[in-house]
């Protein structure tokens, strides 16, 4: 996977996360939205870079033969990395005083955006 394709996909993940957080979660705090969107940008880039550097992109990129949701381990890794990164960043930063359920919901939306964009768009 080229660096341009990774960056475009990650950028799209960040935009989708931002839109979902504002429209679905109704999040209005700029720090929360920016942190979650940045996680949806950075973490898929990190995961895909690891796969490229190790030469494992081919091993993890075999889609499930289910046309409605053709997920692969590579797609799953983007979602998991985003979930972890967004969770840590939000808990250490703008959501440190929020209830755990609220932080979890915000984190899950960012991870879902990264996963869905990865499954369907790159």
Automatic annotation (TrEMBL):
Keywords: Membrane, Transmembrane, Transmembrane helix. The chain crosses the membrane at residues 6-24, 31-51, 71-91, 103-121. It comes from Arthrobacter liuii. The lineage of its organism: Bacteria, Bacillati, Actinomycetota, Actinomycetes, Micrococcales. The keyword Transmembrane helix applies. This is Lycopene cyclase domain-containing protein. The keyword Transmembrane helix applies.
């Amino acid at each position: 996977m080229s660096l341009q394709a990774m960056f475009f996909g990650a950028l799209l993940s960040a935009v989708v996360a931002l839109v979902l957080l504002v429209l679905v979660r109704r999040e209005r705090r700029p720090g929360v939205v920016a942190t979650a969107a940045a996680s949806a940008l950075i973490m898929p880039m990190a995961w895909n870079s690891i796969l490229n550097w190790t030469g494992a992109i081919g091993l993890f990129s075999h889609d499930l033969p289910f046309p409605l949701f053709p997920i692969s381990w590579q797609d799953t890794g983007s979602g998991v990395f985003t979930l972890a990164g967004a969770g840590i960043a939000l808990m250490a930063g703008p959501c440190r005083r929020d209830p755990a359920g609220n932080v979890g919901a915000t984190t899950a939306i960012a991870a879902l955006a990264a996963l869905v964009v990865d499954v369907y768009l790159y």
